[in-house]
Write a structure and sequence with these properties.
mainly alpha; two-stranded antiparallel sheet; 2% strand
Length: 229
Amino acid sequence: MEEKYKKLPSLSSNSIYLGILLAIVGGFLDAYTFVSRDGVFANAQTANLVLLAVNAAEGEWKQSILYIPPVAAFIAGVFVSEIVKIPHIRELLYSYRRSILILECVILIAVGFMPESVPDIIVTVSISFVSSLQISTFNKIDKWAYNSTMATGNLRTAAKAAYSAFIENDDEARKQFIDFVTIIGSFLCGALIGTFSTTYIGDNAIWIASVTLMITLILYHREKGFFRK
């Protein structure tokens, strides 16, 4: 049994393998909320802030208020991800990153049980919180900062690395370019999976994302005693 697990890729907190799995989840969640919750992107708080400002400027105060809860949930997620790093809490949890992955799984499973009658805002707030937890806790590939739930920054980094790699012949930039293109491709795959599964399965499709996180959790901690005899 142990030999079997040793053949699996090791997922450190800044591993490209971990980044791939989390990017798949990030793309999935954006597609899920867009398809099932009237075109809302729960991961992208930039859009929420812009829409809040646009509606406020047009005097649509009730509509503008709807964009505040996802932003607040995102901020709350950042706070939680920092709180679990406090030394005595971190020691109690054994691994704060494991705890964050477990919390993400639990929330997404709960979202899958929510009936269609549940207001969209509850779902988008829940996923905004999950997105924030993920961004704040897992934010590096190797030594480079990245984002597993949005693609804009990753595209900029990939483009910059491409210039350094192919114009200036920088070997390190070439590796960075490959890694970030891989993450962007994984995000796209997650969005495709999220779109098709949500379209044909419905709201319960969110459990695909939670299963992916469970797999991530198992692989991430397989070397820390989860498979001891």
